[in-house]
Design goal:
The protein is built from 4 helices and 26 strands.
């Protein structure tokens, strides 16, 4: 185990021998680190925090800190991270609240760039990229393979669908359709599918073509949402079925 003499590690913290803790880091008594994690310097890990293996934490990030919620009174809530995440400078991840499920969770193989904020009780999937200063308010759900552009705030209770790409500076106040491109440059509207992202993720040309046809009914036709869904229910394939199910369970409405 490599722990710099200036680091402050509370009794009770679990740190495997394969981890590296750099100068001026602070680790709380209920923190559990997985194998081969690296804390470069000036990292704060606090609260009841469970972290998987091969995560890297850059200077001045804070993980598991108390939520920015005036109702929080010190209840024993949690923060959970998976494996292989990169947490860059100045990132803040708040632990959960008793009223919001009690857990803030991040999956595996995510990149959180400088000054990203993950609010209390948010649930982030795996293989996500959050660019600089993207922020999640409390109780946000982000599904797998999402790219969130720089300076994007996401409103409380919103869901961001899998494989979506949100352009920089977009204000998200409704649910973001899976597979979609959404951008402030298009008046905060969805304007098609994330074609390049889907191709990079191994989607076949047939799957991409089918999603493009589905999105034409949703965002480029004169049909309202109910009428578009009737058309989409006649499509074959699990991708369109997932798109329909996402819209049907949306409580805040979707960005079209």
């Amino acid at each position: 185990m490599s722990i710099h003499p200036s680091a402050v590690v509370a009794a009770g913290a679990v740190i495997p021998d394969s981890c590296s803790v750099g100068p001026f880091c602070t680790i709380g008594p209920e923190v559990v680190l997985g194998e081969s994690c690296t804390l470069i310097s000036h990292v704060v890990l606090d609260g009841r925090t469970r972290i998987g293996s091969h995560n890297t934490f850059y200077p001045f990030c804070s993980v598991g800190v108390a939520p920015q919620d005036l109702k929080y009174k010190g209840e024993p809530t949690e923060t959970v991270l998976g494996d292989g995440n990169t947490i860059r400078e100045g990132v803040t991840i708040s632990r959960g609240t008793a009223g919001g499920g009690g857990v803030t969770r991040i999956g595996s193989h995510c990149l959180l760039m400088t000054n990203v904020h993950i609010g209390h009780d948010s649930q982030v999937g795996s293989h996500c990229i959050f660019a600089n200063a993207a922020t999640l308010a409390g109780h946000v759900t982000v599904e797998d393979h999402v790219t969130l552009g720089a300076f994007c705030p996401v409103h409380q209770q919103c869901t961001v669908g899998a494989y979506s790409f949100i352009g920089g500076g977009t204000i998200v106040t409704q649910d973001v359709l899976p597979f979609s491109l959404t951008s402030a440059r298009r008046e905060n509207k969805a304007f098609g599918i994330n074609k390049i992202g889907l191709q990079r993720r191994g989607f076949s040309p047939e799957r991409v073509d089918l999603l493009q046809k589905a999105f034409r009914f949703l965002v480029a036709s004169k049909l309202n949402t109910a009428q578009a869904l009737e058309k989409l229910r006649t499509f074959e394939g699990e991708d369109v079925a997932a798109l329909v199910a996402f819209i049907e369970r949306s409580h805040r409405g979707v960005i079209k």
